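#help-structures
NK: newbie question, is this the right format to request a structure? protein is DoxX family protein
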Amino acid sequence: MKKHIPLILRIIVAFILIQTLRFKFTAHADSIYIFEKVGLEPYGRIGIGVLELIAGILLLIPKTVWVGASLTLGVIGGAIMMHLAQLGIEVKNDGGTLFITALITFILSAVILYLYRKDIPFLNLK
């Protein structure tokens, strides 16, 4: 079971990243609201969606897990900062669901990056 936990974590994070893309790529009203509020509509919404898609795919490829986890940390770290600086914890009466999901995704990505730290070529941890 221990060897399956990293894979399960990768699938969870990839799922979270990829399932939010339907809102970004279909220009859902809530997604437009969020990105307008932070001044990144429409290019930021689409660009961040593309980065999340790439990160989700990279997390599922064994040789690129560390790249996907790093990219996820950057993108989701930015989302967390936007929540704290401009959006607030609760967005459009969601009870903080988006913020909590971002925190969970960030933490799981950090765990994944730690688990795959030996795969980072320039750290020479082997």
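mod (FA): yep, format's fine, and the tokens are attached above. The chain has one domain: 5-119.
NK: thank you!
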